[in-house]
Amino acid sequence: MGSPNAEKPLSVLEDALKGGITCFQLREKGKRALVGMEKRAFAVSCQRLCAQYGVPFIVNDDVDLAVEIDADGVHVGQDDMEARFVRKRIGSEKIVGVSVHTVDEANKAIADGADYVGMGPVYPTITKADAKPVAGTAMIEEVAAVYPDLPIVGIGGITAENAEPVFRAGASGISVISAIASSTDPELAARRLAEVSLKWSRDRGVLR
What we know:
globular; seven-stranded parallel β-sheet; alpha/beta; 7 strands; 9 helices
């Protein structure tokens, strides 16, 4: 959501919250990303909205910001601060997520105290300039087989129409940007995604 005009992203976020998203991650990266006090102000605005709907607010990579505003958690990639150091900074009660691409990376994430892992990109994505090659669902299936109780979040190009294989592979949830932010009706888009997620949770007999 890297835009100097915070009104549109905040409007999209509120629509998504109304539509039933269960977690929000602030990811401010790229050429147009907010920085400094503007980034902090935007983060706090997003955090307040999430609090109104009882939805966890997670900061991507920026551990200092997460600590400063008391975010609900931090998500890091393989090139960011190691999860074990993130855990020490934010404490045992906060959420730590880690992007992984292999079973070995999942092993380390768990050992470092991760609460969940993100895996992908499952499908082609245009929202991350530094995205890895498309991975499909095979590695999600492999990690889920080794760690059946580990919450896995599928990432990258996921929509309500193509989410089924991600859940079938073993994902507990999905992370989206374009499917909601680029929709003409973000609330409806979020609701459709939430319905797909809920269906798979029910089919497994577990509501995560």
